[in-house]
Design brief:
Elements (H helix, E strand, L loop, with lengths): L23 E2 L5 E4 L2 E5 L12 H14 L14 H14 L3 E5 L2 H12 L5 E5 L4 H10 L2 E5 L4 H10 L6 E6 L11 H11 L2 E5 L13 H4 L8 E5 L9 E5 L1 H10 L1 H4 L6 H16 L2 H19 L11 E7 L1 H13 L2 E2 L1 E3 L9 E6 L6 H13 L8
Parallel strand pairs: 3-12, 5-6, 5-7, 7-8, 8-9
Antiparallel strand pairs: 1-2, 2-3, 4-10, 9-10, 11-14, 13-14
Helix pairs in contact: 1-10, 2-10, 3-4, 5-6
Length: 388
């Protein structure tokens, strides 16, 4: 019996856009192993270097020794062991909210939020460069998806003014954009949402642990009382896995009862939850690590700009090195590997056409030695050769 293989619908993907899974070991570490080489890792979201810390490992081990290796079921059945309660109570203190809920991933959290709060008669306003999980959550909700130009409050107000006053409205935005490293104009957005009576949701995935003494951009700007829901992840700066939502008791109870990605998923295993709890405590104990990383980012970004590289509008630890064409980015990645650096090559459809880039992710555990490696590597290769 033979199996027929059907091509995906639509046009064939250009070869320079095709993806493959890299054979990488020690992917979260400061140095990883790739093709027999030990390379400085500028591709990981482990921004604070917590994933390999002694404290995080010990917290995971303690959780396994007490609770085993599996949660056993969804949290509404039998998977709600006491570590979950401790984690959500810590999240409430961390975010300054009445309630919090942990999901299996950040992706699942956004799907759960949007499929619960939005519906067919709802309008969801979303930044054009929001994460894919937000786009998919809006699609799943069957709400009308209203996309505004990236970080453009004027365009957002134009769109808000065109819609019926009585229509239920939600706005969701990344606070730090994952492929550009820039920040959402939250004060302007929240003023508009107040004017037009819009429920607001912030995705702090790439801001958590870094901005606002680790609590995110909303807290850095003292806007926590203006934001209805705060979403974030443990899988990036917090060095573990999972997603969370923090907000009012009413909204969190609604998610517990209606968010399908929460209700119908086996809960996170004890090792992961133990590490998440330890990560929150680490960030609160050393909130200066985020500012240290932002200082390092300013230094590296300025250096790259002096060499002629286009770093977009980045203001955070994520620095795009925009080369426009996919083939140029793939060549630059190979050249960096030869110079001792591993970086992500980001191409369409993850980013718009003619905006392919290297995605440089800096880390708080980098020292002067690693800074020199980065500077030497980018000085060796030429910005001009990738832009022609």
């Amino acid at each position: 019996m033979t199996t027929k293989h059907y091509p995906p619908p639509g046009k064939k993907m250009p070869q320079s856009h095709e993806r493959s899974i890299p054979a990488v070991d020690h992917g979260p570490d400061l140095y990883l192993d790739f093709q027999g080489q030990r390379l400085l890792n500028l591709a990981s979201n482990n921004y604070l270097g917590l994933a390999g810390s002694k404290e995080m490992k010990e917290a995971s081990i303690r959780a396994v020794e007490e609770f085993g290796t599996s949660s056993g079921a969804s949290r509404l059945i039998s998977g709600n062991y006491s570590l979950y309660t401790a984690l959500e109570e810590e999240l409430c203190r961390f975010k300054g909210t009445d309630a919090a809920l942990v999901f299996g991933s950040g992706y699942a959290a956004n799907l759960g939020i949007l499929s619960t709060l939005a519906h067919r008669k709802c309008l969801v306003f979303s930044d054009r460069l929001n994460h894919a999980s937000i786009i998919d959550g809006i699609t799943l909700s069957r709400a009308t998806h209203v996309r505004y130009r990236h970080a453009d409050p004027e365009h957002l107000e134009y769109l808000l003014a065109q819609k019926p006053v009585q229509a239920p409205k939600i706005l969701i935005t990344d606070t730090v954009f994952s492929m550009d490293g820039d920040r959402a104009p939250l004060p302007e957005i929240l003023n508009l949402c107040k004017k037009y009576r819009v429920l607001t949701i912030a995705d702090e995935a790439h801001a958590t642990g870094i901005l606002g003494r680790g609590r995110g951009l909303v807290h850095e700007l003292d806007l926590e009382q203006e934001m209805d829901l705060h979403m974030g992840t443990f899988s990036k700066a917090l060095g573990s896995y999972g997603g969370y939502v923090a907000g009012s008791r009413e909204l969190i109870d609604l998610l517990v009862n209606r968010a399908r990605s929460f209700i119908y998923s086996t809960s996170l295993p004890p090792a992961v939850v133990g590490a998440c709890l330890e990560a929150l405590r680490q960030v609160q104990a050393s909130p200066q690590q985020g500012e240290k990383l932002l200082d390092l980012s300013r230094q590296i970004r300025s250096f790259l700009q002096r060499l002629g590289y286009d770093t977009g509008k980045s203001t955070t630890q994520i620095i795009p090195v925009i080369m426009k064409k996919s083939r140029a980015v793939l060549q630059a990645r190979e050249d960096l590997v030869r110079a001792g650096i591993y970086a992500g090559a980001i191409r369409p459809p993850t980013v718009p056409e003619d905006s392919a880039r290297l995605r440089i992710c800096l880390r708080a555990d980098m020292t002067h030695k690693e800074i020199e490696v980065v500077q030497k590597a980018f000085s060796t290769i030429s910005a001009r050769q990738y832009q022609t």
